[in-house]
């Protein structure tokens, strides 16, 4: 696993497409029980090299009901984005994750992760990649039907502060999805 993580951190497969250059961000351990698959690091995470080291990460830890210490314990959580490097800025936010990363690195990582009991899929890119045809037409529908994907997968919206409108429009998320998420996480890490 250490050799694989080192290979990923030295990856330059798409460097010509990265405005800030490559800086792959990933965290995993062979004993990880939960895998969090998000989109791609933002500029703050690119600068720090620490996964989810931003406002979205703070919100995600609230959703999971975990401390920073638990969240960054690689034996509890593997953090594997769809794109390992900051993809650049688009018109309405960051660009999509680079398409080279997941096909290149996800299978080798999962081959090393022998104790995974839950994969949390954050955002449409992760949900479409891992759920395939089982994913619904919209993120809202996929998250709303989260029970269909359990016990292996649990789809979530992105915890970005920009998603406040989505959360306000979909109050069922906090009532139905978050308690299920928190219970499963608690049972796996304690």
UniProtKB/TrEMBL annotation:
SMART domains on file: UDG, UreE_C
> Which Gene3D superfamilies does the entry mention?
Uracil-DNA glycosylase-like domain (3.40.470.10)
Q: Check the record and name the CDD domains matching this protein.
A: UDG_like
Q: Where is the Uracil-DNA glycosylase-like domain?
A: 25-182
Top-level taxon of origin: Bacteria
Q: Which InterPro entries match?
A: HI_0220.2 (IPR047124), Uracil-DNA_glycosylase-like (IPR005122), Uracil-DNA_glycosylase-like_sf (IPR036895)
What name appears for this protein in its UniProt entry? Uracil-DNA glycosylase family protein
């Amino acid at each position: 696993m250490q050799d694989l993580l080192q290979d990923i951190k030295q990856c330059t497969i798409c460097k010509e497409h990265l405005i800030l250059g490559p800086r792959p961000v990933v965290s995993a351990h062979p004993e990880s029980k939960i895998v969090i698959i998000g989109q791609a690091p933002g500029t703050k995470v690119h600068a720090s090299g620490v996964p989810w080291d931003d406002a979205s990460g703070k919100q995600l830890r609230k959703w999971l009901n975990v401390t920073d210490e638990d969240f960054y314990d690689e034996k509890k959580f593997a953090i594997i984005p769809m794109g390992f490097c900051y993809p650049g800025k688009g018109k309405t936010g960051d660009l999509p994750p680079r398409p080279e990363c997941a096909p290149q690195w996800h299978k080798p990582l999962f081959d090393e992760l022998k104790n995974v009991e839950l994969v949390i899929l954050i955002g449409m890119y992760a949900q479409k990649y891992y759920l395939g045809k089982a994913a619904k037409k919209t993120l809202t529908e996929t998250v709303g039907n989260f029970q269909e994907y359990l016990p292996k997968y649990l789809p979530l919206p992105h915890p970005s502060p920009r998603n406040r409108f989505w959360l306000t429009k979909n109050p069922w998320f906090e009532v139905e999805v978050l308690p299920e998420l928190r219970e499963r996480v608690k049972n796996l890490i304690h």
